[in-house]
Amino acid sequence: RLVQSSPSPDLSGLSQRDGPLDGLKQLRKVNLMKNTVTLVGFVGNTPEVRNTQSGASITTVSLATTRSFKDGDGNRQSETEWHRITCFNGIGKCVAEHVAKGAMIMVTGRIHYTKWTDQNGTDRYGCEIIAEQVDFLAKAKEAPQDEPKKRRSK
User: Fold this and answer.
1) Pairing between β-strand 104-117 and β-strand 123-138 as defined by DSSP bridges
2) Interatomic CA distance for residues 150 and 119, integer angstroms
3) pTM of the predicted structure, to 2 decimals
4) Distances in Å between the alpha carbon of 127 and those of 82, 110, 122?
5) Is 35 helix (H, G, I), strand (E, B) or coil?
6) Mean pLDDT, consecutive 10-residue segments, the chain of 154 residues?
């Protein structure tokens, strides 16, 4: 397994007298902050494609990830979470062309949160993964048969 490490920031100019904010400023200069997520799961729907007025292509798809664990009594449990994946332009076109419901894919991207006000004046929040890379792991027919069932939120 290959592990890549980032070069360590040069913090030699900091002394013990420097406060925590001084260190934070130094870390920001070397851009160590990251927003990266990798998900491997089953596609839950046929990709939906739409185009903006400027001609950009946006493809959305839902992705189920399942984790297994033992509960307090030692019984094996599983929990499925659904993620909204948004792909732009070239990546989106590939997803729309090659991915179908039930396929297994790996998505690497970033988490993006949105806030809007609905027609009743209530603030609403959403979360999506903006795909920067999508790897096709198995077509729908080739994917393992224990595909998670989509649950409705309560």
Assistant:
1) antiparallel
2) 28
3) 0.70
4) 11, 10, 17
5) coil
6) 45 53 65 90 96 94 96 95 96 94 96 95 96 92 56 42
